[in-house]
Amino acid sequence: MNKVLYISSEAYPLVKTGGLGDVAGSLPPALLKKSQDVRLLLPAYPDALSKTGRHRVRVSTSCYKLPVKIIETRLPGTKVIVWLVDCPAAYNRRGGPYTDERGYEWHDNALRFAIFCHLAVRLSLDRYGLQWRPDVVHCNDWQTGLVPALLSLYQNRPATVFTIHNLAYQGIFDQKIFAALKLPAELWHIDGLEYYGQFSFIKGGIAYADKITTVSPSYAREILQPEYGYGLDGLLRSRAKDLSGILNGIDEKLWNPGTDPYLAKKYNRRSLNNKMLNKTYLQKALKLPVGTSIPMAGMVSRLVQQKGLDIVLQSLPDLLALPIQLVVLGTGDARYEKELSEWSRKYPDRLKVIIGYDEVMAHRLEAASDFYLMPSYFEPCGLNQLYSLRYGTLPVVTHVGGLADTVVNTVQQTIDDNTANGFVLHEHSASALINAVQRALALYGKPKLWRQLQLNAMGRDSSWQSSTEHFIKLYQNLVGHIDDPG
Ligand code: ADP
Ligand code: GLC
């Protein structure tokens, strides 16, 4: 049994802006079930405080002269112990974990996450006498990047793992901020936290962690190339022997069409006909023409370039000329929100655009749609295609990252061997997207075949089962290695 401190800036259901929240809310409970003594460390945002039950103050201290407490609670619905870093000056605000209510980055994000990292380091070294010292500190994304860097300065320290969920977000700040945060000068060099004269949080994770993982095997290979490396491919290549890709799993209780409380009609592989009642329910709710045979495409997404919004917009004139309905749920870049909304006003019977973050609608749309659009430029793992597969909603995806690792293109051979479960674009372009949707529509017209594709999709194992085993093996190797006096 390993003691694992799992550190994340979000975790469902306490706080979530995207897939990291889903992973940090479901991997720790899955590890706990496999007898790992895992604790989750999160900033005490107002939602995290209000959505948790009993609170117990374990530590009262300060960081950068600001009062900080460590509050112990549990992740709702699980036995996972959560430690909340309660620094009201940093986290007690209205708005999101990274941005204010208008969507602008918090001006003091470097300080906010430096506090988080310092507390993580002190807890990792059991500085407060909590009688719990992790064997492994598992960090996620740039907000936790200083932890491996700071821990590297201690001889007797836990092992560190850094998981990259998205290399496009790096936590880059001015050098002056590095100085103002009084971080150890020995970390400031090109193989350390310096990045072209600036201060990089994510480099702390990539340069100093004992092991680096990312969230799919394909993305682990892609980020070694300049095209996907976001300026860090050189550093990643230098660490290639310590880098591996471990595919995300999903919370199979939360994303299960057979028990999903948000659905108008629950269904499973044996009652797949009920799926279409979710479509008619949504059509009525959204004031779209109602009909079970009208194919519906769905999209639930951060509206950012990564997700291929450019090609979606370019292909709209052709897509909306097809006999389909398209429903998009998302928030993000103002220009995408505006353009999509304009198109939906022009085509009210074909396109519905819901601007906002709506967990319930996300479930309903996954269940209602016949196929799901995810033409990402890059996709470290992607969870929505996994939810789609589970809901018998066939994903239409680009051949990148986790999409390439989970979606099997429908061609004669994969139809014959019952592995086909979606549609893969042959290149990243509007015409390839239109072509893939046309292919999907042609097969939608063959109900027996379509049903088989849905069954293939729903039969895919997206549980954490095999990935937790990979993580445990990784932890095990590290702990053995670090404990080895030689
Ligand atoms: P990413 O983390 O890059 O945003 P993922 O596919 O890994 O992409 O995960 C996205 C998660 O966020 C999914 O759980 C998805 O349902 C959810 N999500 C994204 N946008 C919205 C939204 N507007 N409303 C509700 N859920 C959303
Ligand atoms: C990131 C990636 C997404 C991945 C998620 C969880 O946000 O963009 O592909 O699924 O993290 O790992």
Give the end-to-end Cα distance, rounded to a whole number of Å.
Answer: 23 Å
The helix content, as a percent range, equals 25-40%
Q: In total, how many domains does the architecture comprise?
A: 2
Count of helical regions: 20
Characterize the overall form: globular
Work out the number of β strands: 18
Strand content: 15-25%
| Class inferred from helices and paired strands | alpha/beta
Any guess at the CATH architecture of the largest domain?
Answer: 3-Layer(aba) Sandwich
Mean pLDDT: 97
The first-level CATH class name of the largest domain: Alpha Beta
**Poorly predicted segments:** none
Side-by-side strand order of the widest sheet: 3-4-5-2-1-6-7-11-12
Tag the structure with descriptive keywords:
single chain; 486 residues; alpha/beta; Rossmann fold; 2 domains; 9-stranded mixed sheet; 6-stranded parallel sheet; 18 strands; globular; binds adenosine-5'-diphosphate; binds alpha-D-glucopyranose
